[in-house]
Amino acid sequence: MADKKDQRHPQYTKDRQIVNELLTQAEQNNRSYAELARLIVRYKDFLGARDIQTDLIKVLTSWGLSEEELFDKSRRIHQIGRVYMVEDEGQDDWA
């Protein structure tokens, strides 16, 4: 069986910047919760970006949330309205 090699995610550079911001954020807001949830979904089981995966867990832990609590909070945020500002219109970036 061939060894699976780590891959580089096409959104790595942009996502790394977001993760760095989340790591240093003093207060969380709806957008930061939504971003953390989105990135956890994106990188879960991804073969690569181990540094991002590790840092996402650090953020989640430092915010005192479990993954399920974050996802529940994120679902509620999305139910009450738009999380992303108009400047992000048309840039659904879930992949």
What this model shows, in words?
The protein is an all-alpha fold. The protein has a domain at 29-81. Helices cover 57% and strands 0% of the residues. It has helices at residues 12-24, 30-43, 50-62, 67-80. Helix 1 crosses helix 2, helix 1 packs parallel to helix 3 and helix 2 packs antiparallel against helix 3 (50-62). The longest helix has 14 residues, at 30-43. The protein is globular, with a radius of gyration of 14 Å. The termini are far apart. Residues 86-90 have low confidence and may be disordered.
**Which percent range describes the beta-strand content?**
under 5%
**Average residue pLDDT:** 87
Order of helices and strands: HHHH
Distance between the termini: 28 Å
List the uncertain runs.
Answer: 86-90
Helix-strand makeup class: mainly alpha
Number of strands: 0
Query: Helical content, roughly?
Result: 55-70%
Discrete helix count: 4
User: What overall geometry do the principal axes of the alpha carbons give?
Assistant: globular
Main sheet summary = none
Q: Round the Cα radius of gyration to an integer and report it.
A: 14 Å
